[in-house]
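Bug report (template v2)

What were you trying to do?
Predict the complex of my protein with magnesium ion.

What happened?
Run completed; filing so the output is reviewed.

Input:
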Amino acid sequence: MVVVCLFTMLFFSAIVFADEIEPGVFNREILTVGISTDRCPVFYIDKGSNEPVGIGVDLMKVIAEQAGYDVEFRVIGEENLKAALDNPEYDVVMPFGSAIDSAAGNASIVTDNLMQTPFTLVTRKEKMLPSLNSIKVGMLHSLSGVAETVKQLFPGMEIVFFNTMDESVKALRRGEIDALLHNSFVWSYVLQKPAYDDLAVKPSTIFSMDFRVGTLDTPEGHRVIERLNGAIAVVPDTAKQGIIVDYTTRHLYHYDIFDYIYEYGQIMLMIALLIIAVIVIAWQRYYAFKLEQEQKMLDYLNRDPLTGTLSINGFRKRVVELLRKYPDTQYILSYNNIKNFKYINERFGKSAGDDLLKFWADKSLEVMTDKEAICRIESDHFVVLRCAGGDEQLSKDGSDVMDQVRNYFIDRHKDSKVRICSGIYVLTPEDYQTPDVDHMIDFARVTEKRVSENLKDSYGFYNPEQWEKGMRTADIIGNLPLAITSGEIQVWYQPQINYETREIAGAEALCRWNHKKLGFISPGEFIPILEESGLIYDLDCFIWERVCRDLERWNRQGIHRSVSVNVARCDIKEEYDIPNHFRNLLKTYELTPDQLRIEITESAYADNSDIIIDVTKKLQEYGFEVEMDDFGSGYSTLNMLKDIPVDRVKLDYYFLTKSGDLEKGNIIVSYIIRMVRDLGMKLIVEGIEDVSQAEFLTKNGCSYMQGYYFGKPMPVQEFEALDI
Ligand code: C2E
Ligand code: MG
Ligand code: MG
């Protein structure tokens, strides 16, 4: 019994006690509130807790608490609040300015006002707004309920809806709308975004909206609304203001990557550039380092570590490079060897031998240029590629390098003379075209062997004729400018005869060179050399000028002569403009065009290039007679005469008849004479050495001739004497 009493007492006292601690704790209902969370700071999702927070949430919590509800917030899935009203999952939905019909057309009821929400306009900073009744305003779709109230307040205002804040801002910037409308709390959040710093709130609040909780107009709805109204009435304004101030003064906006780019774009760009610059510099350094390493490796492969001269590998490469780069330089390649180097090593020690080799390499390098190369091919054997500088250079090298090496030990007070043997190979034109360095070295090595067997000489040539030729070439090329000015080069004249009248019909100007070192040299030797080296134009200009001067003098003496001048193939270049060059000469020396006949050798016509045909035509246009020289001496094809517009053909009789069957040669000559005549061209035959040839030609219809029979080329004074 006692136990039953005790238990009963305890039960009732527990009920009383619980009632005292928290009234209604046993009958608290859960109030489900539907909200949309895209209105920071009124409703939004807290990033940390992932729970809905904001002014509206806190306010509702306070009111629900007061009303004895446990409140649960749900984010609405509907497009807007109007539609959310119809969803039975929510007991109430918020916020509403006033009671509106639901999307399904059901009437709704709302609580008393929780707070006033000010709505303000935002526009671009510098923008002045016209009257509110005539402006175009942008709003978010989710505020369509508010828009209805706005339309009632400002019937003249045009409202355009946007899905997102960004879209609405873009439209504002493009000038499609005058301002954006939203509640001031939201603006306090949105305008924290750096990219919106060109926007400004228009300070005067255009209107205030109530902030109410709504639900469908049902009995249950009425019950909830009434209960909430009871709570709203007792929650003090200060509590509400506290919540508002708390949220509107926080920096709630979270920067995204674009905000950072906008805000710190320039700094980030500079940092990026800096990083790129650092990477580029680091890469360049690395690349330079790599190149340096490769170069060192190459050097190691291409250099002789003892003397610093090239290794055979490096030498081969360098020689090919040099021959390609300097095809006009006459090179020699020498193979040099110290006789009995073995004994030097034995007698003075290996390091003394090494010192001698280093000394030799240094002395050689001292006299050499970048155009030359030296290599230690093995122990005491050096191979050198050197520009051929004639006998003087050989003797200078002898004293500057070889003698020093020969006396190396004597100069160091040791009684031993070093004997060096050298074999020299003079490079031929083929060596430049297809350089085979090993072959050249072999030729020089063979010669060195021969020299070393012969106790008298210290050097010898593998191909002395080539050496001679090379030296003559160097003498010809090197002396041309001086020879022109000093009178070594002269114009000689060979008469051209009209055999029928026995009169002198003209002359051919031929150059003669009495070389100060080589003596009298024939054009057959120096003309091809000058052609190859590109110097022939200098010589020809000089000759043409001299001829014109003589013609002018003869004109002044009352003798009107015609002279044939030779034009080399290489003179026919666009930049030389031969036709105008001759025209200018005529002007300068007051000559007529018939006084200069232009001989262009048939070999030049052989390639039938456009330029030679153009030049020929131009010369004819200027009144000159153009002659095809040396016809029959090699390149001619009969077809050529058809295509080339020359005035006169100069047949080389000597060439056509010098070998083989004379009779057949004469038959050919007679047919050519006929053919040229039938083609309407003039003809002169050169190389006439005796009377029978002259008679034969006359019989066959050619009376213009030139040859030793009538007179060899002669100095101008002799030629003038002829004519008298
Ligand atoms: P080319 O123009 O055919 O000159 C004729 C050559 O034949 C001349 O040789 C002349 O001396 C030679 N000759 C003349 N009559 C006879 C003869 O009866 N029998 C033989 N066997 N030969 C005879 P040269 O003076 O030694 O000139 C050789 C070539 O050099 C010329 O041939 C011409 O192509 C060229 N040449 C000469 N002087 C000049 C010049 O001032 N400028 C240019 N570009 N070339 C020139
Ligand atoms: Mg000629
Ligand atoms: Mg000729």
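What did the reviewer find?
Residues 1-25 have pLDDT under 50 and may be disordered. Residues 508, 566, 599, 629 surround magnesium ion (ligand 2) (CB under 6 Å).
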